[in-house]
Specification:
The chain is of the alpha+beta class and about 1000 residues long. The protein contains 18 helices and 51 strands. It folds into five domains: about 5-10 and about 185-250, no CATH class; about 30-175, Sandwich (Jelly Rolls); about 255-520, Glycoside hydrolase 38, N terminal domain (7-stranded beta/alpha barrel, Alpha-Beta Barrel), CATH 3.20.110.10; about 670-920, Golgi alpha-mannosidase II, domain 4 (Beta-galactosidase, Chain A, domain 5); about 930-1020, Immunoglobulin-like.
Length: about 1000
């Protein structure tokens, strides 16, 4: 037989394009359109319907400007003969001027009934609105249309002026292309779905195989049966030909895909947060409409923040969601406030994502979410499994590791083990997408990529338009139905995440284990981009710690009212900004204008709360008597110094306050052409070029700086990644660096100031030191006006460190400094929180920071045979997409170079740098609410209980990475009982509570495993 497959495929493709698709709509009838252009930001329905509407016609521009909103009032009558023929349906067809891009990245609309209830969204690939009137009946509805610009295009490169409302211009970018009543031919539509599935299946099967050849020939016969001049009259005949092919069941060994309706809605990205609220309303209305029409359709949705927006701004939609949740068809998942980044948020913040999210789901729906849900985040911290378990969950879903550039995680379904040994059953949907359209291509990819096939034959398929929202469509559900049991295809079932994990638990009694972080070999620039937002996050996290600690202390000591509402609101704001396209720096300018304003507002609120509490505490109270304090209180003291860190600082005990003198600065002393800082513990020398050429530990005589090398050296690298500009740093940056040269080195008061110009920018360094401290302060002030450049600060150290310890949430992670494996090679830029520590036995050096996350740590052999381990901080970038002005302007970074053998020394500097002691007028001693006997156990949070009972909640963790035994935790107030609880402050029921030993008046005694996180709930007497 002649090989005619390409000709047959071309014939079928043209038939679908030119005959089937155009005939889904039999005919159309016009409607009357009126419009009102919203003058500024979107308005609620109740306000929009009261406006004066003007006549509007198809073909006219709308939106006013990019990001504008137009409300259309649509009135019409369904023609008397529309929808009367069996197999036809009358509906409204709307084309807002859509391009070929997917839903969620351009214009969108939401259809409303006159009573203020929503119908569904209008989007590029979901452009119909059901009409709830019959033939000959009239209707009125409203369409809220958002003129959102297509920021990304197809390249996700190149700056855009449309990323801020202030730069978007006033030229309309959309014209209304269609708004009409149409008569849909249901049979032609069903034929369209049949053909889509079978053509997709044929593309996945070899046409020289039996099944592939059969599908090709049945499609050919269907084409013969369809009269191109009478598609409506012969569509049923063509469907009858296809029915046999669609009825052949799948093989017994076929992969099983449990399809879960989903809509990954980025809480901000190429649109601002205000638009995300409308995206949620549109998507959720789509889902509810589908549920009304299909009793088997299920939908999983995460992000408590998005539900809260709907509750507060679309109460009618929220009421319908609650009904579907109660039925078990709408499944809240994940339990986080937003789908946050996990590399950058601090430990307590990541814990609060679950506290806030799971509380919302429990309070609003009575739902306990058993899984963590982060399909699209840029790497996953090794601390996450413990946090997930501590929140009461046991499963984890993500897809992002499939983006890795170099290595592939060797499992699809496995136990993920965190740094403390906690494990969660994890599933990576093997179709490698969280936006599937249920195509045969996605299903077959999922079957091929399932690394546990032959053992676990089940996987999750997340389907629905995502990122910009939209969710599942009727076409996707139709595809799932057709592939439920189809020869040559994996079996498809509409289901829930719990069904998937239930099957995996049954099929994998001993899953494989992945230990430690799931590092994403991609998007490494997100540790550095949009540094102002990262600084706002870091500062907010520490202000929240202070506000909770001092407000709790004032409540317990003085009976002050605890500011529950203000703290919860601040937390919710900070948690929202940790969304995985906000905090990583990958959103448009508008998002960062909002974020920086929100951080400033949060700082004002928290500083006021801190000021109220500390002022009251410093001025006296029942615990302010200092008569029994050894040495008493200096008579001349007029300020109380508050230390919110878990380590002593400037002579003030951890978590307490004392009227002590301020730390004494050490000024630089000029010695020849060099400058020396001598703290009594270390001696630092800065040369005439402004570089640190030695940092000598006085006790050992050892110099931390590698001989012949310069520390605190700034290098500007070319930063032009191949793609995803704000997201990525490519390894090639290392080939093109320029070391900044000093133009002046001067002493200014107690600081040594070095000025280094570069291009249109200036980098100013201020070196400082403090008496009695084993460290040198390096403050970098960057007046930055470079684009596509990366500024790094380098510290070459005289150490042979095989690994670098980097702080992460509730502990640290050790990463190799060598490149033995492809995994090591790919890890050329890494994230760390407040510090990085490198060491040999008995001697180590820490590089601590107040706002830097991106680092690289390498080692090299010197000419003298010694080894240099180099720690570099990534300070600032200048990507041009999606925000062309990213990182431009003034920045200040604080770094500490510290000699210390242990990671506890690094943590000491990290805490003190990020939680500086506060001076408050007064003369009272404030005893800590909590003291811990072990130096390796840190108190991370002191707060009052979420249920507003007045109980004190203390969160602490083992920080060294070793077992801690006999850890005494004492409380500076009368205690009626101590209970070990989970993150939601509920008593543990797994036996772990037995680890708490407490007798009236005695400290709690704990035994803690490496990096273990413990939460104690303390009832006051």
């Amino acid at each position: 037989m002649h090989q005619d497959e390409p000709l047959v495929e071309a014939r079928i493709a043209r038939l679908v394009r030119d005959r089937v698709d155009p005939n889904v709509h039999r005919r159309a009838s016009p409607v009357t359109i009126e419009a009102w252009q919203v003058p500024d930001e979107p308005v609620p329905f109740a306000e929009a319907v009261t406006q004066q509407y003007e006549p509007f016609s198809v073909g006219s521009p709308w939106g006013g400007r990019p990001w504008g909103t137009t409300w259309f009032k649509v009135t019409g009558t369904v023609p008397a003969d529309f929808g009367t023929t069996e197999g036809t349906t009358a509906e409204l067809h709307v084309d807002l001027g859509f391009t070929k891009r997917q839903a969620g990245f351009q214009a969108e609309g939401l259809a409303w009934r006159p009573d203020g209830s929503t119908i569904k969204a209008i989007e590029p690939l979901n452009d119909s609105v059901p009409l709830q009137v019959g033939p000959g009946e009239s209707f009125t509805l409203y369409i809220e249309a958002g003129a959102n610009p297509d920021i990304g295009g197809d390249s996700f490169q190149g700056a855009t002026p449309l990323g801020s409302k202030h730069t978007a211009g006033d030229v309309p970018i959309y014209r209304l292309r269609a708004l009409e009543v149409v008569e849909r031919d249901d049979t032609v539509w069903e034929l369209q779905q049949d053909l889509w599935v079978l053509r997709g299946l044929m593309a996945e099967l070899p046409t020289d195989g039996t099944r592939g050849a059969d599908v090709l020939r049945v499609l050919e016969r269907a084409a013969d049966a369809l009269d191109p001049d009478d598609v409506a009259g012969t569509a049923a005949d063509a469907r009858a030909v296809l029915a046999d092919a669609l009825a052949v069941p799948a093989s017994g060994s076929a992969h099983r895909a449990i399809a879960v309706g989903h809509a990954h809605i980025d809480s901000a990205w190429l649109w601002p947060v205000r638009e995300t609220k409308r995206k949620c309303a549109r998507t959720f209305s789509n889902v509810l409409d589908l549920m009304d029409r299909d009793p088997d359709f299920t939908f999983a949705c995460s992000s408590a923040q998005q539900y809260a927006w709907i509750r507060d701004e679309y109460p009618e939609v929220f009421a319908r969601i609650k009904q579907r949740v109660a039925e078990g068809r709408w499944i809240p998942v994940g339990g986080m406030w937003v789908e946050s980044d996990t590399n950058l948020p601090g430990g307590e913040a990541l814990a609060r994502q679950f506290v806030a999210g799971k509380r919302f789901f429990l309070e609003e729906f009575g739902i306990y979410t058993p899984e963590a849900w982060l399909p699209d985040s840029f790497g996953y911290t090794g601390a996450l499994p413990q946090i997930v378990r501590a929140a009461g969950s046991k499963w984890f879903v993500t897809q992002k590791p499939s983006w890795n550039e170099t290595n592939v995680i060797p499992h699809t379904s496995f136990l993920w083990e965190g740094i403390d040994g906690s494990r969660v059953l994890t599933h990576l949907p093997p179709a490698d997408t969280y936006n599937s359209d249920v195509s045969p291509a996605d299903l077959h990819r999922g079957e091929r990529n399932n690394k546990e096939r032959g053992v676990a034959n089940t996987s999750m398929l997340l389907y629905g338009f995502g990122d910009g929202g939209g969710g599942p469509t009727r076409e996707m559900v139709a595809a799932a139905r057709r592939q439920h049991d189809l020869d040559g295809s994996p079996r498809v079932e509409l289901g829930t995440p719990a069904q998937v994990f239930g099957e995996l638990e049954r099929q994998l009694p001993t899953p494989g284990v992945w230990s430690g972080e799931m590092y994403l070999e991609f998007h490494r620039g997100t540790y550095t981009s949009q540094i102002r937002t990262k600084q706002g996050n870091r500062r907010s996290e520490h202000l929240l710690r202070e506000a909770e600690l001092w407000a709790s202390t004032a409540a317990v000591r003085l009976g002050q009212e605890y500011p529950y509402d203000a703290l919860e609101s601040a937390w919710h704001t900070v948690l929202l900004q940790q969304f995985h396209d906000i905090l990583p720096g990958s959103s448009i300018a508008w998002v960062y204008e909002n974020a920086e304003a929100e951080y400033a507002r949060v700082a004002r609120v928290l500083e006021e709360l801190i000021g109220t509490a500390t002022t009251a505490l410093a001025s006296g109270g029942p615990d302010s008597d200092t008569a029994d304090r050894p040495g008493g209180t200096p008579a001349a003291a007029t300020q109380v110094r508050f230390n919110a860190s878990p380590v002593a600082a400037d002579g003030v005990r951890a978590l307490g306050a004392e009227p002590v003198d301020a730390a004494r600065p050490v000024p630089p002393v000029r010695v020849g052409d060099r400058f020396v800082f001598d703290t009594g513990v270390v001696t630092a020398t800065v040369d005439a070029d402004g570089h640190v050429v030695s940092l000598v530990d006085r006790a050992s005589g050892r110099d931390a700086v590698a001989p012949g090398e310069a520390a605190a050296e700034y290098t500007v690298f070319r930063d032009t990644p191949n793609q995803w500009e704000a997201w990525d740093i490519d390894r090639a940056y290392q080939r093109h660096g320029s070391v900044l040269q000093a133009t002046s080195v001067t002493v200014e008061g107690d600081a040594l100031v070095v000025v280094r110009p570069f291009g249109r920018s200036t980098v100013t360094t201020r070196y400082t030191a403090t008496h009695g401290q084993p460290e040198l302060g390096v403050e970098t002030e960057a007046d930055w006006h470079e684009q596509q450049k990366l500024l790094k600060l380098s510290f070459p150290l005289d150490l042979k460190a095989d690994q670098a310890s980097s702080e992460i949430q509730f502990g640290h992670i050790d990463r190799p400094t060598h490149q033995n494996t492809s995994w090591d090679f790919a890890r050329f830029e890494t994230s760390a929180h407040r510090w990085v520590h490198v060491a040999e036995p008995g001697f180590g050096v820490a590089v601590a920071n107040d706002s830097t996350y991106g680092h690289d740590v390498t080692r090299r052999t010197r000419a003298d045979g010694g080894t240099t381990t180099q720690v570099r901080e990534s300070l600032v970038r200048g990507p041009k997409f999606p925000d062309p002005e990213a990182d431009q302007g003034h920045h200040v970074f604080r770094t500490v170079l510290r000699v210390g053998a242990s990671v506890l020394d690094a943590a000491d500097s990290g805490y003190r740098l990020n939680l500086p002691v506060r001076a408050v007028p007064g003369d009272s001693v404030v005893e800590p609410l909590v003291t811990v006997s072990s130096p390796q156990v840190f108190v991370e949070a002191v707060k009052l209980a979420e249920d507003r009972s007045g109980d004190v909640v203390v969160r602490l963790y083992e920080a060294l990475g070793g077992r801690a035994t006999g850890v005494g935790v004492d409380f500076g107030f009368d205690v009626a009982g101590v209970t070990r609880v989970d993150l939601l402050e509920r008593p543990l029921d797994d036996g772990a509570g037995a680890a708490v030993r407490w007798d009236d008046g005695a400290p709690v005694v704990l035994t803690m495993r490496p990096f273990e996180l413990v939460t104690l709930r303390v009832r006051r007497a």
